Predict the 3D structure of the following.
Amino acid sequence: MADLVLQGLCKKYGDVTALDRLDLTVRPGEFVSLLGPSGCGKTTTLQMIAGFIEPTAGTIMLGDQDLVRLTPDKRGLGIVFQSYALFPHMTVRQNVAFGLEMRRTPAAEIETRVKDVLAMVGLADKGERYPRQMSGGQQQRVALARALVIRPAILLLDEPLSNLDAKMREDMQVELRQIQQTLGTTTILVTHDQHEALALSDRIVVMSAGKVEQIGAPFEVYERPATPFVAAFLGKTNQFTGVGTGRELRVAGDAVLPSGTVGTVVLSVRPEKLQLLGPDQPGLRGRVSLRVFQGNHWLFHVATDAGQAVVIRQNDGRPVPDEGSAIRLGMKAEDVQVRLASAA
């Protein structure tokens, strides 16, 4: 197994830059997600790795192999598309065996490998069915089995779970991660779903407008976003404009944190990090404008003089403030990112 190294990778369409000088090393066995909104360059990156798009500049190396010089069928990569791209006239077994047949693998080996991979994805008894006879989740497993049976150097996943309902998507995330960890296959996922990237990845590459905003482990990019874009895109975040007096940070006139900062600042804090306090306690004054019960947690909208705030509180059985209640929002220094307004 070898590192996949993307260096200075760039793609332009006329005057439009779809990807601007991407540098990324994916280690053997690593699960990396390319995360961002539509048009950020993530799918373009995946298609250049696969060989469907030629880079304008830069290199794609897998160990000592220059993938740019190889046609897609010579790169040894497994690909699962958003649409699954199964052959409707072939059975599940035939779909999965197709790649091995194209590689002229001996028939006995094909039979063994197809049987093993179908068992791995939970379809051991579905080999003679056709795609039209299967649910979306089962079709997704067939597509995954077809990609894995060739024992690819790298598995490329192009939003493979986006056509599934919410419950099936969560179940498949767990299964996909378990299969990937069992096989140790280097995997690159393209997704616009923040929760999916957080759940599956060893590292996340957050992208915007063709450029990388941040690369890091899920906990790192969520808890310590490098840019305002990452903070806003990777989950909900509250932003307040405040003033540093040299002794404390004040928001809408209320002291919220001790700090030696002087000047106008922007505070970013996740909804689950804000504390709902009594009206006589220190913090940012507000009033509960909306309270929604969501099973394992409560969601609050709180109107403050600094703007609307979103607060999430875990459901631990204790009473929570009613709508219309005057409260204070407390925060801890370690949970808040503070930037000077000029740098925010």
Q: What stands out?
A: The mean pLDDT is 93. The radius of gyration is 24 Å. The first strand starts at residue 4 and ends at 13.
